[in-house]
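This part of the workshop introduces the protein records we will be handling. An example says more than a description, so a record of this kind follows:
>
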Amino acid sequence: MMLQITLGLVLAASAFAGWLLLSVHKGEAGAPQMLEFFKSAETAFFDVLKRQAMVLGPAALSAAALVYFLLAFFSSKGQAGAVQAGFAFLAGVFFQGLPGFAAARIFFSGVLKTAAAAKRSGAAAFTLALRAAGALSSITLASSLAGLAALFLLTGGWGDPRNVPMKIAAFCFGSAFAALFFRLAGGAYSEAAGTSAAAVTEDPSPVIAGNGARDSLSLGADIFDSASAVNLAAMALGAALAPLYGNKAVFFPLFAGAWGLAACAAGIMSARPSGEGESGNIDALDKGFAAAGVTALAGLFLGCALGLGWNM
């Protein structure tokens, strides 16, 4: 039952992120000059990303082939283990890439709509900014959990979950490999924007946009990389504790991570400003943290009950 709930929460979190993006997209775009600037900046940034992706694809295939070759001929993994490691590496690259492109798109749309909303009220700007950030976090974490859950099932997680963490460990190496390319892409765009601004105009907007896009992309890559490593390490620890708690201990970390997505959703929906100004925003964040904490504790209790006391 825990695995089914986990998959259901991941799907629900993806749908929730889509709803957040839709609500941000419906926001007012602002002045035509601002819209034109952000469109040109977004186009330039995605050109850099696409060039990096053209390099990342062949590089990832070469790295996966190297992983396969080393494990197949210089370790005790054998052909089957080498194939699983190579596939897990490519899966890490792929699932890292999905939120990477989404992070850039969300950044430009979120900043544009938040700036326009700030002219109306601080509360509206706060809500749009929070929803854009929540969509980015939800997509990133849901992608990590979806990748690990898919590999868990494909490598025999139903029948022999204890050996799965070591079979899919290369997933983390693949995500770190792709994260390096996304950091390079963000840095390249930021430097190009700064050079262009210095050479053509004294307007600092290109530099600000470049730095913001770079930070958004790097942050998304770091979140995905860290979440994948933490979840996989916890699964390995669960495999060591399986003789005591049973096979459910292996995928308990995935359940906990998925319930964390539910806690994020509860926090985002509860964080509603009660007024204008900094105090209203702080009160809204306090409400969001309280709702997220209560939801997380409820999920932890349910997970412990399912993992330690109830049958699946």
In short: The two ends are 5 Å apart (CA to CA). The chain has ten helices and no strands.
